[in-house]
Amino acid sequence: MLKSLKLSLAIKFCIFSLSFGHANVAIAQNNIITLEGSVSGGIFEPIKVALPDFIIRSGINYGFMKDLLTVLERDLENTGLFKKINRNAYLSKVSEFDAPIQFSDWSLINASVLLTAELEKTGPDEFEIKFRIWDVISQSKLGKGLKFTSKTANWRRVAHKVADEIYNRVTGEGPYFDSKIVFVAESGPKNKRIKRIAVMDQDGANVRFLTDGKNIVIKPMFSPSSDSILYTSYKSGVPRVYKKDLKTGKESTFKSLPGMNFSPRFSPDGKNFLLSITSKMNTDIYKVSLSNGKKTRLTDDRAIDTAPSFSPNGEMIVFESDRSSTQQLYVMRSNGSGVKRITFGKGRYGEPAWSPRGDLIAFTKMADGYFYIGVIKPDGTGEKILTKSSKDQAPTWSPNGRVIMFYRETLGARGAPHIYMIDVTGANLRKMKTGSYFASDPSWSSLLN
Amino acid sequence: MVAKERFFKMHITKLTLLGLLLFVFASCRSSEGSGNYSQSIIGDGSIKITQLEDNKAQIGETVFFGIDESSISSEMMSVLDAQISYLKENKKHSITIEGHTDEQGTREYNLGLGAKRSNSVKTYMISQGVNEDRVEVVTYGKERPEELCSEERCWKKNRRAVTVIAGGFN
Question: What is the pTM of this model?
Answer without folding.
Answer: 0.86
